[in-house]
Specification:
361 residues; alpha+beta; Glucose Oxidase, domain 1; Herpes Virus-1; seven-stranded mixed β-barrel; three-stranded antiparallel β-sheet; 9 helices; 12 strands; disordered N terminus; disordered C terminus
């Protein structure tokens, strides 16, 4: 059962491992943005919000510095464009979305030594952001903020205000963190669990049924084997019998036959000790030497199927061997005759045919 349940668990793990890398592409990190600058009255203005989004190809790590905007081109797409900045401290490039790809404007700013890049959205988008993609930018750190906020900061910098920006990772978002996905995963988990339990119950019930059916079959076959054993020929060996004088041995116990021992002759004419062969036939119902099925040979199986268990008593014969007397069989269900020469001679074992012919001669 454990072997059957192993493939289903492996399939679940493979499905889950396939979903993880796919879902990772949809997970994004927000950015907590803090701006700080001095007003004309020397009052410090500090604004904080979780209003940025890290780029798809950017590592979500904190960075900070003074804000610098490109001169003459707010999008920062022209190569060799100049950022007004103080080279003695870390600075952050603030560029507008448009005119070129995110990767191009990020690479231009990073080549001039920016600690990170903040891209603000286009006009008319309010403070909405998108999950921007910027491949081929190496380890550059970039976030996107809304248009209104980005335009306000850009205007302050262009007017000569020193604006410092502190950015750190906010919260992770995506399908695995979304409420609907949590509901879906919970339902999927319970469905998989219920299916696994149902499968386990089904396999267990099927195994119990198979075991019960096997036990009933074995019990029926043992009962049939007992009836078949009762129909086999049983012989008491006497001195001078061919089996006692030859090198013949019982194939079950591998011992020679001796006078006085009781042997059983199977339907295939193979002979064994009665005490040896009967336990064997109860368990296997076949000859140890030729695998002949005694149930089929004696028709016991058909008798049981046809409800003919009340058939006539089994015929058991005894062959007596004496010194010079003739060999003959006497059925136990018939009276013993005082004239053995008039009895019908019948032998199921070829080992005794020669003795019978010699006696009649």
């Amino acid at each position: 059962m454990g072997e059957k349940t192993q493939p289903s668990l492996l399939l679940i793990l493979l499905c889950m491992s396939g979903l993880v890398p796919r879902s990772a592409a949809f997970v994004f990190w927000t950015a907590s943005l803090k701006t700080q600058y001095y007003h004309s009255s020397n009052d410090t203005v500090v604004k904080s919000c979780e209003c940025g989004v890290y780029g798809r190809n950017s590592e979500a790590v904190p960075f900070s510095g003074c804000v610098a905007v490109p001169k003459g081109d707010p999008t920062g797409c022209r190569s060799g464009i100049f950022y007004g900045r103080n080279s003695s401290e870390d600075w952050i490039a603030l560029v507008k979305r448009g005119n070129c790809t995110f990767s191009e404007k990020i690479n231009i700013a990073m080549k001039q030594g920016a600690a990170g890049v903040v891209v603000y959205n286009v006009e008319g988008s309010g403070n909405s952001t998108t999950f921007m993609s910027h491949p081929d930018t190496g380890d550059a750190i970039a976030i996107m903020i809304g248009n209104l906020q980005g335009t306000e900061i850009a205007n302050l910098v262009q007017n000569g205000t020193v604006v410092k920006m502190f950015i750190k990772p906010g919260s992770a978002h995506g399908p695995w963190m979304d409420t609907y996905w949590l509901y879906f995963l919970s339902i999927a988990f319970f469905i998989v669990t219920a299916a696994s339990i149902a499968y386990f119950v089904f396999i267990s019930a099927n195994r119990l049924y198979s075991m019960s059916r096997h036990m009933r079959t074995e019990k029926r076959l043992k009962s049939e084997a007992k009836k078949a054993i009762g129909r086999l020929e049983v012989i008491t060996l006497k001195r001078g019998n061919e089996l006692t004088t030859s090198d013949a041995m019982c194939a079950v116990c591998i011992e020679s036959y001796k006078a006085g021992e009781v042997v059983t002759v199977l339907t295939c004419d193979h002979i064994f000790h009665k005490a040896c062969i009967e336990p064997w036939l109860l368990e296997r119902r076949t000859c140890p030497m030729c695998k002949c099925d005694i149930l089929k040979a004696l028709g016991v199986e058909e008798d049981v199927k046809d409800n003919m268990s009340t058939s006539s008593p089994p015929e058991v014969t005894v062959i007596t061997v004496t010194g010079g007397d003739a060999l003959y069989e006497v059925p136990l269900n018939e009276p013993r005759s005082h004239e053995p020469e008039q009895q019908q001679h019948r032998y199921d074992n070829r080992a005794f045919e020669e003795d019978s012919e010699a006696a009649r001669g």
